[in-house]
Every structure is written in C-alpha cells, then in structure tokens.
Amino acid sequence: xxxxxxxxxxxxxxxxxxxxxxxxxxxxxxxxxxxxxxxxxxxxxxxxxxxxxxxxxxxxxxxxxxxxxxxxxxxxxxxxxxxxxxxxxxxxxxxxxxxxxxxxxxxxxxxxxxxxxxxxxxxxxxxxxxxxxxxxxxxxxxxxxxxxxxxxxxxxxxxxxxxxxxxxxxxxxxxxxxxxxxxxxxxxxxxxxxxxxxxxxxxxxxxxxxxxxxxxxxxxxxxxxxxxxxxxxxxxxxxxxxx
Length: 243
Known about the structure:
Layout: E1 6-10, E2 13-17, E3 22-26, H1 62-68, E4 90-91, H2 96-99, H3 108-118, E5 127-128, E6 135-140, E7 143-144, E8 147-148, E9 153-160, E10 170-171, H4 186-195, E11 205-209, E12 212-216, H5 231-237
Antiparallel strand pairs: 1-2, 2-3, 4-11, 5-10, 6-9, 7-8, 9-12, 11-12
C-alpha cells in the first residue's frame, strides 16, 4: 500500500488509493447519479454514505439527501419529581369594593374549623387517583345540621386536576411526604390560601401539588350549604363566587 495517495484516472472516474481506504470520486459533473442511484454499490466501490464525500456534483440528489439525513433527535418530556412539589398559590381575585354588595366577612377561626372538619372526609394515608371523587367540606358560621347560620359559606376541596398524568396516585393528607410527618400537609396547604392571599377580602384560592389541587372557595351561592351540601352548585358557576 502506498504511503501517499496515488491517483489513477479511467474515463470520468478518479480512483484514489489511500493507505486505509478506496474512494471512488466522480470528476465529470455531467454524469451525476440520478435521484434513484443512492448506493455506493452502484459505483463499484466502498464509500462514506454518511457524507457522500465521493461526490463532486454540484449538489446531492434530493432522494439521496433524504435517505442519508440523520434521524431527528427525540427529546423526552421532563420527568415529574418522584415526590410531588407545591406550586405557587393562585389567589382568587377580589377586593372589598368588588364584593361589598354580596360579601360577608371571612373569619380565620372559621377557616381553621372548616379545615379541621375536612379531615373527617378521608382517612390519613389514603391516596387519590384520577378516578377518585373530590374530598369536600362545606360549613357556615352559626349553622347546625346544614341549616341556619349567617355569613359566607366556607367550602374547601381537594381534587385531581383533570388531565394530569404525571402521577398515578398521591397521598391526600400529605402529598409531599409520608402521611403524618412534618412536611406541609393538607391543612397547611388549604389554610395557606387564606393566610397568604392578602388583599382579596379572604377569598382564598388554591395551590397545586403534583396532580392534586387544594383549594379554599368561600362563596355566597344559594344551595351550596345544605344537608347534604351541594358543591356542584358552586362548580356550575365558578369563578363567579357571588350568588
């Protein structure tokens, strides 16, 4: 094998003998292969199909270009964290001026009472899935047995976000840790929408943790507070929380 490249010409072909390869190069541009001639074997020698280095034609035939183009790199969607994390609190819009015609004061003690009562709607450690029913608590100050009372209707809800597929199931009472540990639990999440949404007259809001939405929805909609309660009347008009 020659140590330097030797060149021999035969017709319109140029054979280059290199130490490690044999490359067929076309020197007559009038004889470029047609679109159907995209294999090295058609030229009787081995070549680098990846970059068609043996062509000296003005351009690579379209069919060859499409057949040798590198496959597109697929980008996998980002993986959800193994343990769900809490997103930012989404505070309900509103202020005293907006709701003065239909609103009643929202009291911190009643917010805490509603959150405590919500715990009676599920067993610690229970998991929610996309097919689970919402966990909902409804109460009104001064009311008993779904009757009486005055002021705003306090409604809290935990539910699976429609269409969310990041998780198969999530623990209801402690979505970011083990049930009963010291991470932020359902109570912290829901009451936090009242404590940290300043300037919206106590209208609360919601926070998403993985595929679960924890929300406090005080409202003045007729029929929501009843025995049994009818939260569906709220969702039918939400986000118009004034009845």
